[in-house]
Amino acid sequence: MFAQAGSFLVDVVFGLFTYAFLLRFYMQLMRAPYRNPLGQATVAVTDWAVKPVRRALPGFRGVDWATLLLAYLAQFLWLLMLGFVVAPMLRGGSAIVVILALAAVELLKASLWILIVAVFVQAVLSWIAPDGPLSGVLNALTFRFLAPLRRLIPPIGGALDLSPLIVLVLANLALMIPVRWLEAAVLGLGAS
Prior knowledge:
Layout: H1 2-29, H2 37-56, H3 65-85, H4 95-128, H5 135-152, H6 163-191
Helix pairs in contact: 1-2, 1-3, 1-4, 2-3, 3-4, 4-5, 4-6, 5-6
């Protein structure tokens, strides 16, 4: 019972920071506007850590390496804490190496979930509030994935855009096949 409560608290705290750092990284990478509720909340949650790390690790060619490093560290600490709270995840000297590799796989998984949520919310808001306060940031986060598909597959009947559905299907397939395979391969390193 206490292990389950501890696991829940670890998931909430470290999940919040991992996803906030990762979202900030992608918003900066995709040049998303920050003058919206999502951008302001992301900055408010992450600024305390990003600003000092940026002094030591500046961005290069439009990539905010400090924020990506913080997302990775938050994910690593998340897995490490789960290993302490729930049960020893891995035994032996290779545990830290496996957790380091698993953190990278989990960041890839989190990136796909950010894409899935952004595409889904953008599709829903395009019907309800196409010019709402989140439209700019959602468009920036999804444009590079939707635009190539929109060139290949025109809207049905001039109005129904299938590109969000295709991106959702492809992202879910990526979670099911290559990401799950990578996760199993990394966990297999710890078993050997």
